[in-house]
Amino acid sequence: MTTFRLLVVDDEAPARAKVKRLLEHEARFTLVGVAEDGTQALERIEALRPDLVVLDVQMPGLTGFEVLDALGAEPGPAVIFSTAYDNFALRAFEAHAVDYLLKPYDGERFTRALDKAHAQLLGGGGEAERLQALLREVATAAPRRALERLVVKSGEAWVPLRLEEVWRLSSEDKYVRVHTAGGEHLVRQSLRALEERLDPERFVRIHRGDIINLEAVARLEPWTHGDGILVLKNGTTVVLSRTWREAFLRRWGLEG
Fold first, then answer.
1. Angle CA(36)–CA(41)–CA(47) in degrees, nearest 5?
2. So what's the pLDDT on residue 36?
3. Nearest CA-CA partner of 113 in 225, 121, 253, 10
4. Is-contact 61 16, C-beta < 8 A?
5. Mean pLDDT of the chain
6. How far is CA 198 from CA 6, 68, 147, 194, 205, in A?
7. What SS3 class is residue 20?
C-alpha cells in the first residue's frame, strides 16, 4: 500500500494533538510534522514535501489562504482545510478543496476527509489548479479588501512584506519580481492575479509587464512614439507604455 506524507498546520495545540491521535491507526498516511503558524507551515512544506496538509484557515500572522498564496501556482500538496468559516467560504471549499473539516469534527468525519484525499492522491494531478480556483472564488465572494502584504522568500526564511514597501512589480516568466528599497524578491504568482488584489489607489499598470507604486514615481520624461520614461525615487527608470499612459496620468493627478 502507498503511504502518503501528512503535515498538520494549526495554531491550537489541542487541534494538533487531535489530528495526531486520529492518525495513530491510519495506515494510508504517516505524520511527518506539525506547524504552529503560517510561516512554519511554509518552511515545513518546503523542507518535508508532504503529500497532504491539514491546514487551519484562521491563524494569527499568516492565514491559511496566505500560505497558499505564497506557495503559488506550482504543483504542491493536497489540502484538507480545518475551519470555522462562514457559508460563502464553505461553498467554495466544497467546489475546489479536497475537503474541509468544520470545527469541531469527530473521528468519523476526519476519516471521510482522508478517504477523499487518498482517492485524489492516487488519481494524481490538479491540486495547484484546484487551490488557485479556491483562492479566486473566496476572494470574489469576500468583501473587497486590497492585499496588504505578500509573503516572500528571503534567504532560507519566509517573511511578510507589506505592500507599502513595494515600488514596482514586474512579470518574469511564471513569477513576479517584487522591487523594494531593501532588495528584490520573486513570488510564484502571475502579474494579472496580483493586480486584481492590489489597492487601485496606490498601484497602477504602466506596461504589459509592469505595475508601479504611484508613491515611488519622482518624475515623468517623454520618450518616443507616445511612450514615456518614469524615473523612480530610487533613481531607476521604467517605461510607461502609451497603452497605459492615459490611465497612469489620470491616477497620478494629470489629464492624459
1. 125
2. 94
3. 121
4. no
5. 85
6. 33, 17, 5, 6, 11
7. helix
Q: What is the pLDDT of residues 33-50, one digit of tens each?
A: 999 999 999 999 999 999
The predicted pLDDT at position 131 comes to: 67
95: left (phi over 0), alpha (psi -120 to 50) or beta: alpha
* Pair 84, 58: CB distance under 8 Å: yes
Span 172-211, pLDDT tens digits: 888 899 999 888 998 888 888 888 888 888 999 999 999 9
C-alpha–C-alpha distance, residues 229 and 240, integer Å: 6
Q: What is the pTM of this model?
A: 0.72
> What is the rounded distance in angstroms from the CA atom of residue 157 to the CA atom of residue 12?
23
Q: Give the closest residue to 63 by CA, choosing from 160, 155, 193.
A: 160
How far, in Å, CA of 196 to CA of 43, rounded?
27
CA angle centred on 180, ends 176 and 213, rounded to 5°: 80
Beta bridge partner(s), residue 154? 157
* 167 contacts: CB under 8 Å, gap ≥ 6: 179, 180, 181, 212, 213, 216, 232, 233, 234
Q: How far apart are CA 208 and CA 212, in angstroms?
A: 12
Peptide bond before residue 104 is cis, with ω within 30 degrees of 0: yes
Q: Return the top range by mean pLDDT from 66-70, 144-148, 252-256.
A: 66-70
The grid cell for 197 is 488584489
Q: Tell me how far apart the alpha carbons of residues 81 and 113 are, in angstroms, rounded to a whole number.
A: 10
CB 68 within 8 A of CB 9: no
Q: In Å, how far from its chain's centre is CA 105? A: 27
Cβ-based neighbour number of residue 197 at 10 Å: 19
